[in-house]
Amino acid sequence: MLKALRPQNYSKENTLRQVGTAPADALGATLRVLVWNILKARRRDFHADFSRLCADRDLVLLQEAVLNAPSDALFADQQLEWIMARSFRDVRSGVEHGVKTGCTATAVSREVFRSTHCEPVVQTHKLLLATRYRLQNSSPGKPDSACMLLVLNIHAINFVRLSQYREQLSQVERALTGHTGPVILAGDFNTWSTRRRESFFALADGTSLVEARLQRRGRLGHLAMNLDHVFYRELHLRDAVSLGHVRSSDHPPIMATFDIEKPDGEMAAISA
Fold it and tell me: What is the fold of 2-259?
């Protein structure tokens, strides 16, 4: 009986879906970002909060995102191209679950990495979605990857051994291979233990990723640890804030603003 009610997993070849159309071919000099685990868009006030938070965003990274759900119309109202990486489908409701990245620019490429291991009992994979976007103000003569923003949207695996968690982190390194331009890595890292947190920060240090520092408190429901993070490379962080007052998910949304270039026109790698 339990097996019959387990979610239907998607194969890697059948996971990606596109919804909506981007109004631009490339991103401008300023990048306004929203990162949020939306708890399947099921809490009261989610629709109002989501519409307000997305209103001026160039890039939106969502975890516990849904498709074929009552919130579909809400996403259609945004002037963004959404790339959804589907992990599984609920066999009773038909709702599809995964991570979703929205952008005002059309994605040049998209790739999904499924966790090697599954969550116990439900046997579902967690995902890393990699998308690339052109930059309007890139300098001529730079290699192709230097003229692109690489966006890595992650929902890390949860109830597994540390060694299995680290296997998914190695997929981040694979996604970064060969990319020399700006990078944003953000999402729900499930860093609910010190050893998980240390494992991820070792990866960030080894790949020259800088954390966007946030003023916030650990949440009791997450063992008093912060699970959601934003990391970046070859960008200038203007500001970042965790909106702890927003209660339409059990994860607070994160808003960040980046400059693609410094005023002198050179690519920046500056931490706030």
Answer: Deoxyribonuclease I; Chain A (3.60.10)
